[in-house]
Design a protein that fits this description.
The complex is a heterodimer of chains A (117) and B (107). By secondary structure, chain A is mostly beta strands. Helix content of chain A is 0%, strand content 50%. In chain A, strands 2, 4, 5, 6, 9, 10 and 11 form a seven-stranded mixed sheet that branches. In chain A, strands 1-3-8-7 form a four-stranded antiparallel sheet, with no helix packed on it. Chain A is globular and about 40 Å long. In chain B, a hairpin with a 6-residue loop joins strand 9 and strand 10 (97-98). Chain B has strands spanning 4-7, 10-13, 19-25, 33-38, 45-49, 53-54, 62-67, 70-75, 85-90, 97-98, 102-106. Chain B has no helices and eleven strands. Chain B is mainly beta. The chains are: A mainly beta (117), B mainly beta (107). The interface between A and B is medium-sized, with 24 and 27 residues.
C-alpha cells in the first residue's frame, strides 16, 4: 500500500517561497500523477496542480500559474510543490495525493504553511 | 475550467436519516468524479470513485450515482461517525475542481 509522507510545518515571511515535499513509499511512484491540493483555514479544498513523474509533465490551476512549480524526483520517489511570492492568503494546509483514475485513495498527512510577518 | 456546483452547502440530519448530496458539472465529465469525506484536521478520505464505485473498506451505506453532468452521493442510514464535510472532485481533465463542500451536522 502506497504511503505519502509530507515535510513538516513551515512559517514564512510575505514575499518568500516555500517548498513542500511528498515522499512515496510502498508502491510504484513514477506511473501515477501526484496532485497538490490546499485548504485555507475554515475553507474548502482547492486543486493547485499535478505532475506525472514518469513524463515530468506538470499542469497548474490558472490561479497559481507563474507562482507554483511542481516537480518530481524519480530516484527518491519524491514530489515537490514550490510556491513563491507568498502572501497571507497562502496560509493553508497543503496536501499531496496520488491519482489513479478518479480514485485518489492515497493522501499525504498535510503540511501547514503559515505566512506571517 | 469545469465548475462543480455542490449542494446543499450544509445539512442538518439525525442518526438513521437518509441524506443526498449533489454535484453538477458545468460540462460533461463522463464518470470522472469522486466523493470524499473530511473530518477536522484530517486529510480527505475517498468514499466513491468513478462516480459509483465504492472504495474498499467504505461501508455500503454510502453510494454514488450519475454520469455526464449530474452526480449524487447518498448515505442510506446516517451513523454518528458520518458527521463530517463531503466534497466531490472532478478529474476528467486538468484543471481539476472540487465542489464547495457540504457540511453534515447533527440535528
Amino acid at each position: 500500500q502506497v504511503q505519502l509522507v509530507q515535510s513538516g510545518a513551515e512559517v514564512k515571511k510575505p514575499g518568500s517561497s516555500v517548498k513542500v515535499s511528498c515522499k512515496a513509499s510502498g508502491g510504484t511512484f513514477s506511473s501515477y500523477a501526484i496532485s497538490w491540493v490546499r485548504q485555507a483555514p475554515g475553507q474548502g479544498l482547492e486543486w493547485m496542480g499535478r505532475i506525472i513523474p514518469i513524463l515530468g509533465i506538470a499542469n497548474y490551476a490558472q490561479k497559481f500559474q507563474g507562482r507554483v512549480t511542481i516537480t518530481a524526483d524519480k530516484s527518491t520517489s519524491t514530489a515537490y510543490m514550490e510556491l513563491s511570492s507568498l502572501r497571507s492568503e497562502d496560509t493553508a494546509v497543503y496536501y499531496c495525493a496520488r491519482e489513479i483514475s478518479s480514485s485518489w485513495s492515497n493522501w499525504g498527512q498535510g503540511t501547514l504553511v503559515t505566512v506571517s510577518s | 475550467a469545469i465548475q462543480m456546483t455542490q449542494s446543499p452547502s450544509s445539512l442538518s440530519a439525525s442518526v438513521g436519516d437518509r441524506v443526498t448530496i449533489t454535484c453538477r458539472a458545468s460540462q460533461g465529465i463522463r464518470n470522472d468524479l469522486g466523493w470524499y469525506q473530511q473530518k477536522p484536521g484530517k486529510a480527505p478520505k475517498l468514499l466513491i470513485y468513478a462516480a459509483s464505485s465504492l472504495q474498499s473498506g467504505v461501508p455500503s451505506r454510502f453510494s454514488g450515482s450519475g454520469s455526464g453532468t449530474d452526480f449524487t452521493l447518498t448515505i442510506s442510514s446516517l451513523q454518528p461517525e458520518d458527521f463530517a464535510t463531503y466534497y466531490c472532485l472532478q478529474d476528467y481533465n486538468p484543471p481539476y475542481t472540487f465542489g464547495q463542500g457540504t457540511k453534515l451536522e447533527i440535528k
